[in-house]
Amino acid sequence: MRITTDHVIFEMNANNQPAALVKSGERLVFETLDCFSNTVKRPEDVVSSIDFSKVNPATGPVFVEGAEVGDILKVTIHEINLADYGAIITAPGLGVLGHEVEQEETVICQVVNGEVRYRDFTLPLRKMIGVIGTAPAGEGVNTGTPGDHGGNMDTTAITEGATLYLPVNVPGALLALGDLHATMGDGEVVGAGLEIPGEVHLDVEVIKDSHIPTPFVETADRYIAIASDETLDAAVERATKNLTTFIEKEYLQTFNSTIMLLSLAGDVSVSQAVNPNKTARIALNKNIFDHLKEIPAEKDTPVMSDLDDHVAEI
Ligand code: CA
Ligand code: CA
After folding, report:
1. Burial of 306 from C-beta contacts in 10 A (0-12 / 13-18 / 19+)
2. By the number of CB atoms within 10 A of the CB, which of 5, 19, 100, 185 ranks highest?
3. In sequence order, what are the residues at sequence separation of 6 or more whose Cβ sits closer than 8 angstroms to the Cβ of residue 312?
């Protein structure tokens, strides 16, 4: 089923009218406007000319049949197709150096042969979805703000081939998405990626009785817990807590074992440092668990006393 940009929302809200009723397991295509509702097309279209009531449109929402409060919505992202040009903007007050920006500026960039042309630079295409989420319980959240429901997470890991797990807070989940980027660096320091219209091909599936913490991304290689909060410190703490809880349950590890493992092998990243809530994530390679099925049960973990004899050799 194709969900067109005839149906966009600016707030993720339990009371939004569904754009479509879809089945668990169904393949969907979401057409998306860029984050400026496709109004920025030339260098003259600077930030002060933008209608901020139409920023961050999210296409949808879709009501997924059978999704009940407490379930998890599994979203498998198969394909992201983009328009052939997008916009990057800056303006006083925007982004982490906004206080130093003296003049607003818009640069239109072509997307050609899998590359982004920015001024004289050629950048690799790094397609991603900036805004994707379900409706929160209770009060709505505008599509510019990330939270536990997802939303404006601006997380580069949310891309083709990734599986995103989102909470079902209201019947039907009410999934919506938009704000595609042709490329964006982690942190999104000016507050924009290469903002671009496009379409996303994905599957939705309702998962019952899962301990997966949300929002959560799984790729072929990695587990990635995402959290958004008022500060990056708080977001890092909550993402780490979520991945810890997941590893404890999935691999029957103790809390201490898990947090030390994450300190040894988990990678914390800033997803974005510029939105009303900040978003961080922590990733862990899945292949470190491969040996668990190979270790004989009776084999003891080495203790420090066993290692003392070898210290002199190190
Ligand atoms: Ca965004
Ligand atoms: Ca954006």
Report:
1. exposed
2. 19
3. none
**Token pair for 92:** 């006083």
What is the pLDDT, as a whole number, of residue 307?
A: 53
Quote the pTM value: 0.93
Question: Whats the size of the chain, residue-wise?
Answer: 314
Distance 275 CA to ligand 1 centre (A): 8
Q: Which two tokens stand for residue 302?
A: 């080495």
Distance CA 149, CA 83 (A): 28
Angle between helices 232-251 and 255-265 (to 10 degrees): 120
Cis peptide before 213 (omega within 30 of 0): no
**Residue 50 confidence class, pLDDT cut points 50, 70, 90:** very high
Phi, psi values for residue 228, rounded to 5°? -125, 140
Ligand 2 center–CA 195 separation, angstroms: 5
Say which ligand is closest to the CA of 193: 2
- What tens digit of pLDDT does each residue of 242-265 get? 999 999 999 999 999 999 999 999
- 278 in Cβ contact with 272 (< 8 Å): yes
* Span from the CA of 50 to the centroid of ligand 2 (angstroms): 14
> Is residue 304 scored above 70 in pLDDT?
no
Report the pLDDT value the prediction gives residue 309, as an integer from 0 to 100: 53
Strands 58-64 and 8-9: antiparallel
Spatial contact of 5 and 33, defined as CB atoms under 8 Å apart: yes
Q: How far is the CA of 244 from the centre of ligand 2 (A)?
A: 30
Average pLDDT score over residue span 235-243 = 98
What is the rounded end-to-end Cα distance, in angstroms, of the chain? 62
Q: How far is the CA of 145 from the centre of ligand 1 (A)?
A: 8
Task: Give the pLDDT mean for 257-274.
Answer: 98
- pLDDT value, residue 293: 72
Provide the pLDDT confidence category of residue 292 given band limits of 50, 70 and 90. confident
